[in-house]
Amino acid sequence: MAARLGDHTGASVLLVGTGRHDERSDLPDVAAVSRTLVDLREMYVERCGLPRSAVTVVHDPANVEAFGQAVAEAAESAEGLLLVHYVGHGLVAEDGTLHLATAGSVSRGDRVRFTALPYDVLRACVAGSAAGARIVVLDCCYSGLAVASGTLGPDRADAVTGLARIAGALVLTATGGSTPALAPQGDRHTAFSGALLRLLTTGLPGGPPVFTLDEVHRQLVLSLTAAGLPKPRRALSGDLGGLVVADNPAWTPAEAASPPDAPRDPGHDTRPDCPYKGLDAFTQDDERLFFGRDRLVTELLTRLRECAMDGRPLAVLGPSGAGKSSVLGAGLLPALVQGRLRVAGSAWWPRRVVTPTGDPVGVLAAVVEELTGTPAEQAAARLRADPGSFGTLLLTGRQERLVLVVDQFEELFNEGASEADRLVFVRALVTATGGGSPAPTALVVLCVRADFYDRCAAFPELAPALENRPLTVRAMRQEEVRDAITKPAAVVGRRVDPDLVEVLLNDLGEGGWDTGEGWYEPGRLPLLSYALSETWERGAGAALSVADYLRTGGISRALSDRADEALDSLDEAGRDCARRLLLRLVHLDEDTVPTRRRLHRDRLLASLPDPAAAQAVLDAFGAARLITQDGADSHATVQIVHDALLREWHVLRGWLKGDQAGLLLEHRLLDDAERWAARDREPGLLYDGAPLAAAEHWAAADPDRVPGLPPVAQEFLAAGTRRRRRRRRVRNLVTTALALLLVATATAGGLAYQQRREALREARASAARSMVSKAELLRDSDPRLALQLGAAAHRLDPDNPATRASLHETLTTSRYAASLDGFGDEPTAVALSPDGRTLAAATADGRLRFWDVTRAARPKLLKKAWARGTAGARTAGGAVSALAWRPDGKFLAAGGPREMTLWDTSDRRAPKPRSPLSGFGTPVVALAWSADGTRLAMATLHVTLLIDLDDPRVYIGLRHESEPYDLPRLALSPDGDLLVTGDGDDSVQLWDVTGTKAVRRGPPLPPVSTEEAPVTAVALSSDGGTLAVGTRAGEVGFWSVRNRRAPERLYPRYSSYVGLADQVTGLAFADGDTRLVIASQDGTVQLAQVSGSGFERTDRPLVHGAAVTSVSVAARRDLAVTGGADGRVVLWDMSDRGLPRPAGAPLAGHHPRSTVGHLSLGGSLLASSADDGKVLVWDVSARARPQALPPVVYRRGTDVSAPPGSALSPDGRRLATSGGTDSTQVVLWRAGRGSFRAEGAPLTGHRSRLQTFAWSPDGRRLVTGDAEGVVIVWRVSGSGAPVRTATLKHPRGAFDAVFSASGRRLATIGGDGKVSLWDMSGETGRPRGLGGVDSGQMGNRRSSMALSPDGRLLAVGHTSASFSLWDVTDPARARRLARTDVGHIGPVGAIAFSPDGSRVATGSVDGALVLWDVTDRSRPRRIGPALYSRRIGFPLSMLFLPGGRRLAVQGISSVDLWDLSEVASPGADLLPEACARLGGASLDRAAWKAHAGETAYVTTCRGADG
């Protein structure tokens, strides 16, 4: 039997409380303390079984002596048990130590130490007691200091936590180290002790029969945090946690057969089965338990009825976790049986639910076999030969239509199906619905995860389903969620406590329910279902209670806690195997978020090093209902139960985040190895070239990787390596033979020499390709090596467009400048001097180094700066926690363990320390200067000071409390009059410090984060007008503090800057306050563009590679520095050299509500049309500000139903627009006297609104296209009316038309996504069809297309945030060269070629503009990061101006011009720039051999050390 608190003989219990204070004290009285002590005594006696004589109560000890005497006497008299329970004020002395208040305690300065009992005294008395069990309960402010190891640094950690390390000791505290305890006004008890009293006196229904110390702590955490109160803390040693404190008075014997947290025996459990599905989807059998979706099911039936008539599939879209599968399984299918579709005979139609799996054709064949008896193998063969035969196969021997629900349609892309089978599957489904078949034979419903929409849109056959009102599964209304919670329990005869319903609604919506709709985050729905199923398992009464729910950990923790339990049940080897196994069950893709994948169990076990351990993992996670296994024997499949586990379980999320690129490569390697083995080890499937180099580099990065691969993968990799070696030997033999032949046969010498040169050239090219592949893999993780490899590859093979383009991408997308290694310890602070020439870096070992970074690529240690002649200057007593340069650069402030030292850096080669300001007691953790350098703000853990350096005795002080992991943050305005502080909670305070005291500027600023997240960084702009605040939740908020009495939240549309994976560790404004540098613990530094209208993250962060602990930006130089947990300091080039720059302010004039537009160029004129009915015209011949001409108003008012249309003739003398009152007519305008005037009668021939205009380069032909797809070619001569010479037709509308530079080719694109190419060189002027491209781009108003000047290359923008390049040299045999993800959100709505065809510009609807080098046509590469201009919104149209040095981009209401003059031309030599970045450092010979093999060594940066 477990030991009980009341069983101890010789027990001594001391209850001390200070609630009333005398005239000596400045502390407020707390009336609840006295009542709490009285009730605690009764609790310990009546509920815990302790003798009344053993309990001593001390009310309001008069002084430290009286308090200490009571503690000492209790400790001396204790034999079996010593328990000290204190209630009252907790105080923190200036040295950071915890003190317990007496009646006469004073909270100011050093008087705390003499008027309150130091916790160290209590600790020593308790630790010295002879009692076998020792318990301390502290119900006071800042009590967490008693259990927070390291709170005051290494020298205090032993003293503070020594008690907890003595066997048989427990310390339980009401709060954390920086948090006040609470005594709500009017309550009988303090918050913490009151919760303890309620737990032990009233009990916990459905709880355990007894409360141990462990269970008491757990329940207090759950109940107090659920009520929004501080979280209790605990320190424990030995097995004291199992000590029974009291019986649970709410426990009943009926519960004894099934403890709440134990699995129930089905044979003895009389309760009904759980009505909640957890993470499983509802099926047709669960109809009676499915509630809350009546409205959606009704809408689903309406849409499906329309599809039955239209002959198209119905697409059901929604995010992961929205409940799509459940709506179809338990909502739609039962409704069909009930005849609610209201289509004759539909109630008797057969219904099937399938998922694509890795063999989608086999899935359809199995359906055919089940329904008609046709053998599956025969059906599959016929489907592959003719996908349209699916409908015919379904009609074999039957008449009725089939209702086919394709659930988890995304499996088509992530289960390994071939491209051919995917196409067969899609075409078979579409034709069976009536799309192209004689009669519909199936009603098809496609259930698609929303983030796979773009992948589906690539199939033209799915356009009707995706574009014509797909059904989106949205979040449920509040009343619907209420039904989903309460009604399933009612079905089986139980109820849900109304209080629990409110708690669940609040937790699901995170307090954000709206009284109207009440939307929540849809992906949280599975967590609610899982929490309900877990609550059911823990509850045994007639009603599910809040207590049952709290024991699960709640919505946010139930799933994660169950996964933790499953993982913890395994040994160390099993946990490592679990990591490998679970990652194998995740599908990784560059384009979408990770998703679960289904694998055959045998295949999965064979892919892991230890199949027995893997089976144990499957058993553990299967028992926890986190992995499902379907089928039996060789057909058994395994799958993670829901994608929610990937999002919510922090362990799996961390594994995925750790090395996603490496995991993706490993998954591909394993899949390719299995495919190789399945095809009898076909040599053609082995890796070669870049894929082999990438796999070998991945394997070499960790010596444990290859041994951890399954045998087949090791053999696959080894076979590829052996084949490459054989080829090299053959090549070397050929080379040798040729050399011998050259010597032996003089007459054949010339040929042999040529062949040898060719062999050497091929060897160099092969090595260059391998280096390019590795460089692109390393670009983020090791930018220096990536740059060295890229430069070496370009040196080896300079004529290859791929090596140059790859190097150009590295130079323009990486800001890496240099690394400083070898610190031997983690950098604790870094700071760049204002001029950017000197770097100061401090490390945790107490060293401070100064570096000359005038040449950023070659930093030099300033050795004369070391005071003691060692490698570093050691500070007094410990690490430097903060560094700040005075704005003139002549002094550096360094915050030490208990002091602040000023370093005189007027001679930067010999910095000298001045006498430190000391006596702070705790480390100086933050520093900030005023602009004139006369005031310095500094923060310690408990005090913020503003010092006048002319007289350090004059200062302003502020008290605060912070813990080591929630350090205080501060910023000082340039004028030194505004101080900003963040004290470790989620608020920020502004202080007026113009006088001798700090005065609050209003209440604290509202929290940045939606969740409670401490402030971890603050920064003020250089003009003091903008404040940025970063939090532990990875968010950044902005405020305008120009009016310091009324700060204003900036960017109301963007409540916070979200996107970091971990907490913000540093902030700094740069580039004239137009850029914010955001350092994060996730190892990255984000660069956010800041303007008056908003802020935007750039698409490529700086990747330090480990948690960034500090960041600094030079005030007067484009240089930044980061210090990381990996012991490295990295310099970053913040300049935009070689990148596009804005060329002046936007060209404005369109209506601000314009939504579509088009640009055209004619001679020196640029024209912009929009749906406001105006064409704006500018003369752009000069590089100075373009000159505006009078606008052409061709229609009055804004009419979005009439898209804009206009085009300037090549000479700029004519303009074509749609008609003013009739948008089907073409109006021509002629330039004259500085403006355009309409000429002639409008041209007729179109019957729907015009959408596109294009002039031939010679200006003699005009092409117009309309919404019905009619394209007319007009011959336009110098005089006389234009004549229609040809009419072309595009299905579903004509959206764009463009001529090649020669005018011999015309490209048009229609709403069906097909691009047609026409020969326009005929004398008759009639186009001749040449063929075309099925781009997969479904037509809409933002479809985009561009033709290269030579007419041989076609670029098409896609809705899937990508663009493709097509070789249309022979249009009849057009082939796709590349499809490139632009890395942004939404369709590519604008695209253009440069005049020389070497570049492509793309614009996405998220406002991103990206420039691409397409000289290597098989792989476009970026030129610099994405460009944003919130001044114009998202790009609608773009074109390069003559010469290609400027790019015009039309936005919503204006046009932006970008200067491209600094972007390197295609023929520019990039090696000088690369070598300058590297400081002249080529790859050394060892690195060359590792990456280039036997290829002869070449010095990349000539004239420098290799």
TrEMBL record:
What the entry lists under InterPro entries is as follows: nSTAND1, P-loop_NTPase, Quinoprotein_ADH-like_sf, WD40/YVTN_repeat-like_dom_sf, WD40_PAC1, WD40_repeat_CS, WD40_repeat_dom_sf, WD40_rpt
Q: Which domain of life is it from?
A: Bacteria
Pinpoint the Novel STAND NTPase domain residues.
275-683
Pfam families for the chain: nSTAND1, WD40
Family annotation (SMART domains): WD40 (SM00320)
Sorted UniProt keywords:
Repeat, WD repeat
Q: Where is this region: Disordered?
A: 251-275, 1195-1221, 1320-1340
PROSITE patterns tied to this protein:
WD_REPEATS_1, WD_REPEATS_2, WD_REPEATS_REGION
Question: WD repeat boundaries?
Answer: 820-861, 970-1001, 1008-1049, 1104-1135, 1147-1188, 1243-1277, 1287-1321, 1381-1422
Q: Where is the composition biased (Basic and acidic residues)?
A: 262-274
Protein name in the entry: Novel STAND NTPase 1 domain-containing protein
Q: Which organism is it from?
A: Streptomyces bangladeshensis
